Amino acid sequence: MRSVTGRRFDWPDLLFGLFLIAVAAGTFAATWRLAGGTAADMGPGYMPRAIALALLGFGLFFTGRGLVRSYAGIERVQLRPILGVGASVGVFALLIESAGLAAAAFAAIVIAAVASRESRFFEVILFGLFVTAAAVLLFVKALALPVAIWPW
User: How many CB atoms lie within 10 A of CB 81?
Assistant: First the structure.
């Protein structure tokens, strides 16, 4: 479909923006009877409406951009990143209780590196060690969460 200026709409942005506006409108309609309150004394409707307001803002942005910009096309779906990140999350979920946080985090980072063709072995290992140490320090030491670091 052509716009008034003869350019095509950016349909993905336009439809996404309209979807966000519809979700925001539904949220406002569902929470209209709830007390809103103030930031200092929040009622049950305060946060849903605040989030709906943010969604409305993003919806208006994407709708406007979809009307102004011409369609640029959508890239072909790449399976490598989807499978790499999905496998990484799955391995982390499977290992966290049996192997501990350190092994699960390190394995997840190494497997996630498969998602990019630009990953270099040495960099991935160093990054994995750094992030694993940071995760242990943050979750086990700083936040004192009851998570096993090692399987033993």
Answer: 14
